[in-house]
Amino acid sequence: MALVNLKQLVTDASRRGYAVGSFNVVNMETLQAILQAAEENRSPVILSVAEAHFPFIDLEEFSPIILRAARKATVPVAVHLDHGQSFSAIIKVLRNGFTSVMFDGSTLPLEENIFKTREISRIAHAVNVSVEAELGHVTGGEGDASPGVADPSLFTDPQEARLFVTETGIDALAVAIGSVHGIYRGTPQLDIPRLAKTRKLTGVPLVLHGGSGLSDDDFREAIANGIAKVNVYTDMSQAAMAKIRTVDTLPETLGFPEFMVQVREAIKEAVTEKMRVFGSVGRSN
Questions:
Q1: pLDDT tens digit string along 32-87?
Q2: Which residue among 82, 104, 171, 235 is the active-site one?
Q3: What's the CATH number for 2-278?
């Protein structure tokens, strides 16, 4: 249908009361699984490549493949840099045709985060690329499946968020409200009043990172209070690994390509389930 930028997707999601899933691409199987799920469910989708995954992907070689697949898709697709922390990563994906970037300055002092995010917004917006940034800090390692817990002292301050959005001109704000990257140790407790206040004060679509361990009701409540984009990686990774662990039970005659089709199907099922929970099924129009 179209290769679009992030702002187009999250604006529609925010207006119509659903969230767009942002799914990490780490190889050909994940790319195929995500797009097949999106097309079968008529769901807009965000294809993300995390800076943390650059060691596993030759960005120069793989970007044209991702972009070609996105342009051929029959649903709206954005191609997004996830958790970009270096200026070089931002410039690299801009040169390679990405339509959206996330600058993660969440560990920086507020003033420095504002300064760097504002500069990246200025550069990206000049070429019609959307910008997401993070205020507060979602704990846990990006791409790291080790268990973790949220730190309330690092949650997003709604008043600071209003200043941050005003000063930087970003298109979407990632918030810290009780989720973690990777696997949550224990039961997550989302700070929904904080989320609602942040949405009211900033007026921009909000983003939830670290959704593993959250219940379907947690997601729906978060979406009802301002979340328009949800990042997903751990659930996809776990679905793939669960299928891989069954390899000893499979017929010896099963070849590697056929087995990778099964892995792709497991990932697609995980993506499809998230699209249903996020309410993005059937929203591609």
A1: 999 999 999 999 999 999 999 999 999 999 999 999 999 999 999 999 999 999 99
A2: 82
A3: 3.20.20.70
